[in-house]
Structure formats: structure tokens, C-alpha cells
Specification:
- With about 190 residues, the protein is mainly alpha-helical.
- Helix 1 packs across helix 4, helix 4 runs parallel beside helix 7 and helix 9 packs antiparallel against helix 10.
- The longest helix has 26 residues.
- The N and C termini lie far apart (about 60 Å).
Amino acid sequence: MPRTVSSKKDSRIGKTDRDIKRAMLELIRKEPYGQIRIEQIMQEAPVTKVTFYKHFASKDDVLGSIREDMVSEMLASLNKMPEKSLGGGVRLFYHFLNTDKPAEKKLLNDSDYCDFSKQVREKYFGSDFFRAFCARPEDFGIASGFISDVAFGVYRLWRKKPADDRPDLDTLADMTANMLMGGLKGLG
């Protein structure tokens, strides 16, 4: 089937968006967010100023788009999981946090990006997947924040331990789920 002009245009727009986001991720990997300038993004992409502003209003807008992509990827993986358990959801979250992609790892774990990480966690743990584990649906807003804070807090403590003194991520996820479901008694 021949491609139409609009589909060619749509694919070019998508490619330009991806190029700009890829450039932003490369710059995030190299330096603090506050030092990144739009001119650097344009040079790394490479795109003109006009093209950049046709796609994004600011570098914050680019970062927001990266966040939405990340959340979409996490939720798609979550929804494909055969194991519909709290431990499975936490396990997937831990594997995303422990990614081998330096920029993404920095965005999710570095204190300079705590707002970014918090927004990702809120959307992930606020999804319908986790709603099923809340005994009272009307309390889910509070419960999802609790799950998010506990899961992230446990992961951060895990990262601070020496590597040879840490359980693997799957074991950590099971421990976290047991703690969330049963309190401290859930660890026994």
C-alpha cells in the first residue's frame, strides 16, 4: 500500500520527537539538568530552533514527554505480566529502577530528579493494576502513595548496602510485597 503524504509527515514528526528526546537523554547522562540548554539539545538532535519549538515548548516539555514515554512503557509491561501480584508489580518497578540505561537510571534514582521520579512512581503505582490490591477502593489514593513510598524507600536502602550484602531484586520485590501486605509480620 503506498504511503500518503500525511503518513510520511507523521513519521517525520515522530522521528524528530524521538531525536530530540534521545538528545535530551544523552545530555542528562553527561551533565546536571540545570546546566542543559536548549541550544545543546538542538545541536545534539540535530534540529533547528524553529523545528525544536514546533515540537516542544521548553526543555521541561521534552522531559515531560520522556516521563510519559517511560510511564507508558512501564504500564505496558505491567499489563503484559502473566503474574498479577503485588510482588510482580514491585519486581517490574525494581527492574525499571535498576535499568542499564544510564540516563533513565539517573532520572529515576538521582536526587536531582526527585520530582521526575515521584511523578513516574505516582502514575505507575496509581494504575488500575495496583487498585486490585487495595481492600477499600475509596482509600486507593492514600494506599497507592504508601505503596510507592515504601517500594522506593526499600529500593533506596537496598542500593546503599554493599553489593555482596544485598538480596537479588526478585527477592527484594517479594520481601517488599510481603511487608506491604502484612506489615512487619509479613516479613516472617
